[in-house]
From TrEMBL:
<feature type="domain" description="NlpC/P60">
    <location>
        <begin position="162"/>
        <end position="288"/>
    </location>
</feature>
<dbReference type="Pfam" id="PF18348">
    <property type="entry name" value="SH3_16"/>
</dbReference>
<feature type="region of interest" description="Disordered">
    <location>
        <begin position="205"/>
        <end position="227"/>
    </location>
</feature>
<dbReference type="InterPro" id="IPR051202">
    <property type="entry name" value="Peptidase_C40"/>
</dbReference>
<dbReference type="GO" id="GO:0006508">
    <property type="term" value="P:proteolysis"/>
</dbReference>
<dbReference type="InterPro" id="IPR041382">
    <property type="entry name" value="SH3_16"/>
</dbReference>
<keyword id="KW-0788">Thiol protease</keyword>
<dbReference type="GO" id="GO:0008234">
    <property type="term" value="F:cysteine-type peptidase activity"/>
</dbReference>
<dbReference type="Pfam" id="PF00877">
    <property type="entry name" value="NLPC_P60"/>
</dbReference>
<protein>
    <submittedName>
        <fullName>Gamma-D-glutamyl-L-lysine endopeptidase</fullName>
        <ecNumber>3.4.-.-</ecNumber>
    </submittedName>
</protein>
<comment type="similarity">
    <text>Belongs to the peptidase C40 family.</text>
</comment>
<keyword id="KW-0378">Hydrolase</keyword>
<dbReference type="InterPro" id="IPR000064">
    <property type="entry name" value="NLP_P60_dom"/>
</dbReference>
<keyword id="KW-0645">Protease</keyword>
<dbReference type="InterPro" id="IPR038765">
    <property type="entry name" value="Papain-like_cys_pep_sf"/>
</dbReference>
Amino acid sequence: MTETFDRRRHPVRADLAAIDYEGRATASCFAEGEVFQVIADQLPIRPEPRPDRPIDTEALSGEWVTVYEQTPEGWAWGQLDTDGYVGWFSSDDLGPVKPATHRVRALRTYRYPVADLKFPPLGLLSIGSLVTVIGETETRGLAYALLSDGSAVVAKHLVPLDAVEDDWVAVAEELIGTPYRWGGRSSLGLDCSALVQLAAQTGGHGLPRDSDMQEAEAGEAVPHDDPATLKRGDLLFWKGHVGIVAGENRLLHANGYTMTVAYEPLDKAIDRIAATEWGAITKARRLPEL
């Protein structure tokens, strides 16, 4: 029997596949892959090497990707190390690997050419971005982290890689008002499952990217027939959508209804969503306490 591979999670095509799939997948050739680091602020990942296609997701600055093909047109096909997502992205936005020491905890932070906020920024890093700190300095009483690429960011906007938030839902709440963006995975714009993934990551939970993956794998299933039994941090799933229980009768989600990250009364959200293509709640899941 031929094994079926989800294109979002497995670097397998008819003409090319990762070497790890040799013997499992049918492909014209197999490649070892080469690891690179994302040097853009955000790197759109698409299902095809076409700029007019909607994005599936984004890689963040400092994350690693394993590349199995690069084209003369400047496209690369590979897999994101953070959550295993596979797709096409710009090879111009990749650089050599530098092991990260910290990640961005502020919703976003400017990257400066020198340790001085008066200078024009080089870029804007989102929460979840990874950086390599090689030193620290102070300018006019403000501490800056010096990064391996020669730039600087405000030091208090970073946390060590092993830092864990006691209440990751509070991090999701910090993103209220962020624009909804299909496939977005940054504090400049994100979708429902990216909100869950980014916020849960700060609490030490490594979740898959899309809502159907999270519904199948995140934590453990809990009953959802009585909303009163749900706890803060429980995840509620509909077909193609996920939201976070933020409190009694309160749902927090990135959604196309308000086009933002927003609170919504849970009972009203259930009724509203049931009247749309998403239908009824399909599952509730609870992440483990760490």
